[in-house]
Amino acid sequence: MSRDVIKSRENTLARHARAVRDGRIRELIFVEGVRLCEEALAANLKIEDVLYTDRVARDERGAALLGALQKVSGRMSAVSESVFASVSDTKTPQGVVALASRPRTDKFALEGKGAEVPLLLIMHRTNNPVNAGALLRTAEAAGATGAVTTAGSTDILSPKALRGAMGSAFRLPLWTNAKYAEVLDWCRAQGIITVCADASAGRSYAEINWTRARALVVGPEASGLSDEEAAAADEMVSIPMRPPVESLNVAVASAVILYEAARQRAYEE
User: How far apart are CA 117 and CA 257, in angstroms?
Assistant: First the structure.
């Protein structure tokens, strides 16, 4: 590990880290915090750089993490607390950041799942990174086999989305920046039935067979799917609600439906 502590916020590496954090270097992702760095290691992500402070090095868990990162990282750099504060994306930095190569995120990442029956989450123009991360975490917890974000969505590998996903973004196969029509066509070619939630749908989400290959389609937080986008899916389902409630948060609605899918699939096993 580096013995010289970087003390200038204008250091080349510090500027580089901020560029990755802000999405200006698309080839890399910004992984911050002990837990997320541990998850990145477990997922065998390629670590290019690590920035750390003496504070994390003095902590037992932090020191163990740094030792593991040193074995795989291209460069380990100690930085001052002020430099780290200028790089960090959190209000209470833990003192470690890894700059990792962006994992593969195309349709081919979703293929080759063997005998596992697909259960996908398609996030269409989900623009809140915290919601997107929560959606991804929920999808993995419910047994989804992959997730898709369409063009116009937030970057699912941005720092805020990564924190919301708590490691799920490293484990769940992802296809990002896809065209909506292309995703639906691909699903049909793969024999995957696309399902969207719509308050006007005649069937409840619990009335369909989720043990078949299916993809749940959710729309933007504020507006939801348009009538045309909903009609383009193979099926529509509703979530029964007592009046005067008319809608649920997209993450909550997705959790309700995905856990019904998980319940049915567990019963089939």
Answer: 17
HSE at residue 202, side-chain half, CA atoms within 13 A, is 0
Give the pair of three-digit tokens for residue 157: 């590998």
**pLDDT tens track for 118-130:** 999 999 999 999 9
Contact 161, 130 (CB under 8 A): yes
Name the residue with tokens 């308050």: 199
Report yes or no: 35 and 166 within 8 Å, Cβ to Cβ.
yes
The pTM for the full model equals: 0.93
Q: Does residue 213 register a pLDDT over 90? A: yes
Within 13 Å of residue 251, how many CA atoms lie on the same side as its CB? 16
Nearest Cα to Cα of residue 157 among 167, 143, 146? 167
Query: Smallest Cα–Cα separation from 165: which of 267, 56, 107, 251?
Result: 251
Three-state secondary structure readout of 107-132: HHHHCCCCCCCCEEEEECCCCCHHHH
Question: Is-cis flag, bond preceding 103, omega within 30?
Answer: no
- 134: nearest Cα among 213, 218, 214: 218
Assess whether pLDDT exceeds 80 at residue 246: yes
- Which tens digit of pLDDT belongs to each residue from 36-93? 999 999 999 999 999 999 999 999 999 999 999 999 998 999 999 999 999 999 999 9
CA distance 140 to 143: 5
